[in-house]
Amino acid sequence: MFLVLLLFWIIFNGKVTTEIVLFGIVISAALTCLWHKMFGGKRNAVWPSPEMVWRYLKYCVDLILEIIVCNIKVMRLILHPNEEIRPQLVTFHINLKEDHHKVILANSITLTPGTITVGLQGDTIRVHGLDASFMEGIEDCNMVRSLEKMEEDAKHD
Prior knowledge:
Helices cover about 65% and strands about 10% of the residues. It is of the alpha+beta class. It has a three-stranded antiparallel β-sheet. It is extended.
């Protein structure tokens, strides 16, 4: 891990000088120590399984597609000023157990144009939509199902 961090440090700096390499060694060593202290050498916490990596990549693709679709919906609302905009605030229950999955979902909803997560408390999420059409099926969208499947698969590992 130390070498990977140091390599990224050098690549992102764009040049190799004594100061950059020495500072990179110090930063990489500190981050590596912190990483091992946080995860205690647990392999699964540090290195996810290939199946989980695949699921997260699929989730990212689903999110990008949703962003594109919502961009088109927002453009349609802007370009057709005669169309009535019906803002809507929806509160719904999510069946996710892991807090980081709940936060990923809330951030993903906020990333999609026309929607913003207003609140996340326990198993309840509140979302504001620019138009009611953005809120249709939000509680059972592909992103929710993907995160639920990830949690289900993680239980079996």
